[in-house]
Amino acid sequence: MSIKVENVVKKYGRQTALNHVSFEVFKGEIAGFIGPNGAGKSTMMRIICGLLAPFSGDVLINDISVSGNSLEVRKNLGYLPEHNPLYPEMYIREYLEYAAGLYKNQDIKSNRINEIIELTGLAPEINKKIGQLSKGYRQRVGLAQALLHNPQILILDEPTTGLDPNQIIEIRSLIKELGREKTILLSTHIMQEVEAICDRVIIINKGEIVADGHPSELKSRHTGSFQSLVVEFNKHVGAEIFEPVDGIDLVKQVDEHTWIIQYEYEKDIRPEIFNLAVKNNIAVLALQKVDKRLEDVFRELTAR
After folding, report:
1. What residues form DSSP beta bridges with 253?
2. Pair (151, 114) in one structural domain
3. Any idea what the CATH number is for the domain that residue 104 is in?
4. Do 180 and 261 belong together in one domain?
5. Pair (53, 197) in one structural domain
6. Cβ(224)–Cβ(37) under 8 Å?
7. Are 192 and 265 found together in one domain?
8. pTM summary value
9. Shortest CA distance to 275 belongs to which of 291, 287, 262?
10. Do 298 and 157 sit in the same domain of this protein?
11. Dihedral sign, Cα of residue 170, residue 176, residue 178, residue 182
């Protein structure tokens, strides 16, 4: 199943939250939907899920309009909202059984609930009430609820919020595994997470899509005019040593022996740096180009 967003506009009074937003996510694709706070991410996700109506435009789930067929579309959607709404007085299994009962047209058996409990790593805490769980485990309960009816499309708003590093790795692995068969749109502020699990990145800023593509594609497309190089010598040198090298824009000392050099993107100054060190009887201990990060692209596109 695919998600197709067509020219969606959403306004709150005079404020435009989404301004003619269009994109498509295909089956077997994990798309990261990222942007600054207030960019319109959660609003767009709620519209996709049929929880908000757009001012204009439409969302199609497998060519079925969400606007006119909200209940039908939601049968194929699993949604984990940013602020995970749970019942703290319920036990984990009790809550999942309650959530399963809401799917009137789908008979969710107890063995499916057991399967989801194992899949999301809830088994160690299964005898606790939700109110007794850590934030990370409450997040897992929300994810379990979203997966109960085996939806073909998952909308995950900050799915790893509150998880410790080990839990983050486990949930990332789970999302990647699910992404082989399902269509997944996820929002996160963690750029490493996007690079680790997403096939595609959609960046939204001030209600408009400003970039869409594979993480490596976006990094190569938005390289800017300069790149960086880390140089480590075997002894202290001053900034003046770099003066003979053409194309250097900025040098910054990291410690007594290490410098970061920013230089023109079209040039490769490494041979010149090495020859300069030899000429001055200095040994080069490290000479490494710094790859542009997705975080750099994000800041470049959303700080304008």
Report:
1. 259
2. yes
3. 3.40.50.300
4. no
5. yes
6. no
7. no
8. 0.78
9. 287
10. no
11. positive
As a whole number of angstroms, the distance between CA 135 and CA 163 comes to 7
- Which structure tokens are listed for 44? 């767009």
pLDDT tens track for 139-190: 999 999 999 999 999 999 988 887 888 888 888 888 998 898 899 999 998 8
Minimal CA–CA distance to 237: which of 272, 270, 278, 277? 277
Say how many Å lie between the first and final Cα of the chain, rounded.
Answer: 35
Q: What average pLDDT is seen over the chain? A: 89
Domain that includes residue 209, residue range: 3-221
pLDDT at 105: 58
CATH number, domain with residue 286: 3.30.70.1560
For residue range 245-293, list pLDDT tens digits in order: 988 888 889 888 999 998 887 788 899 999 989 999 999 999 988 777 7
Contact 213, 253 (CB under 8 A): no
Record the tokens describing residue 172, joined without a space.
Answer: 């990332």
* Residue 265 and residue 224 in contact, taking contact as beta carbons nearer than 8 Å: yes
Residues 6+ apart with CB under 8 A from 193: 32, 160, 168, 172
58 vs 161: which has the higher pLDDT: 58
Instruction: State how far the Cα of 286 lies from the Cα of 266, in Å rounded to an integer.
Output: 21
Residues 178, 233 share a domain: no
Q: What is the 3-state secondary structure (H, E, C) of 138-180?
A: HHHHHHHHHHCCCCCEEEEECCCCCCCHHHHHHHHHHHHHHCC
Secondary structure class of 47 (helix, strand, coil)? helix
Residues 100 and 113 in one domain: yes
Considering the chain, what percentage of its residues have pLDDT values greater than 70? 97
